[in-house]
Write a structure and sequence with these properties.
By secondary structure, this protein is an all-alpha fold. The chain contains 10 helices and no strands. Helix 1 packs across helix 3 and helix 7 packs across helix 10 (224-263).
Length: 285
């Protein structure tokens, strides 16, 4: 390889690494902050635009502006998506230029990036008008892109992943109690209210409303056994739906504690926490 070729290869690699750092939030300079806040602002404006389109008076007066804003937003998001795929090989997990990029495209956040632009692309490609409203409203998926720029959301996702087994067990317990409660209520109320409690699946509407403590009041028991069952299930529902929140909350606190511990490593010279020190600050021995 000649000197000029090596120089071009080095410049290409530095550019790719720079793009990766900026888009992944690893660049702490002005450019990184401008790109991050700019994309956050564009995402929020897109959500407001979708909400504005649902108002007939705004759509009739500013419909063309909303169309142009949508076109510009899609162009920006498509460019961002392509740059993320191009620079993904900087990450050792996706280092292969073909298979690595395929693995990156299949990651949850990359799929959200794709779904953020896909509805508009389908619309411009001439999707059947009967599905137009659903496709256009699907642009709200762009709100999920905020997860890239929020440490709290990222911690929450990690907390859910770390406790997925416990959450699955809690979900199975919810389903089991729902079936049992609906079966008991069906046996207690079917004879008195055959329309409201016509079958166990139909009674599950009452079970869901009771377990979630919503209680619309459109379906309620009238027999003594039915009222007793409803009271017990209502009390159980309070604790049952607090269980997943407790699981995720404890995992969130644990992960946050680990992250704080990483930033509080002791100085090898004085033993004081390194947090709060700048790179140029001298240690006071």
């Amino acid at each position: 390889m000649t000197g000029s070729s090596a120089t071009r290869a080095g410049s290409y690699g530095r550019l790719k690494n720079r793009v990766h750092l900026v888009l992944s939030g690893g660049a702490a300079d002005h450019v990184g902050r401008i790109v991050s806040f700019g994309l956050i602002g564009l995402i929020l404006l897109n959500v407001l635009a979708v909400m504005a389109e649902s108002m007939a008076e705004i759509k009739s007066s500013y419909g063309n502006w909303l169309i142009w804003f949508e076109a510009i937003s899609v162009a920006v998001f498509v460019m961002e998506y392509m740059l993320r795929i191009w620079s993904s090989t900087v990450n050792p997990l996706y280092s292969h230029r073909v298979t690595g990029r395929i693995r990156f495209v299949l990651t949850p956040m990359a799929l959200i990036d794709l779904l953020a632009v896909l509805p508009s692309v389908l619309f411009w490609a001439g999707v059947d008008l009967r599905f137009l409203r659903v496709v256009r409203m699907a642009r709200l998926i762009r709100l999920g892109k905020l997860g890239r720029y929020s440490n709290a959301l990222q911690f929450m996702w990690l907390a859910v992943r770390s406790r997925r087994d416990e959450l699955v067990m809690a979900l199975m317990l919810m389903v089991l109690i729902l079936v049992l409660a609906s079966s008991l209520m069906y046996m207690a109320e079917n004879e008195r209210q055959p329309e409201a409690f016509s079958s166990i699946p139909a009674t599950m509407w009452w079970g869901i409303m009771t377990l979630t403590t919503v209680g619309y009041g459109d379906v309620y028991p009238v027999t003594a056994l039915g009222k007793l069952t409803a009271a017990v299930i209502a009390v159980v529902g309070i604790g049952l739906f607090a269980l997943p929140a407790g699981i995720v909350g404890s995992a969130f606190i644990e992960l946050r504690g680990r992250e704080m511990a990483k930033h509080q490593e002791a100085c090898p010279h004085c033993g004081k926490p390194l947090i709060g020190y700048s790179d140029s600050e001298d240690c006071k021995k």
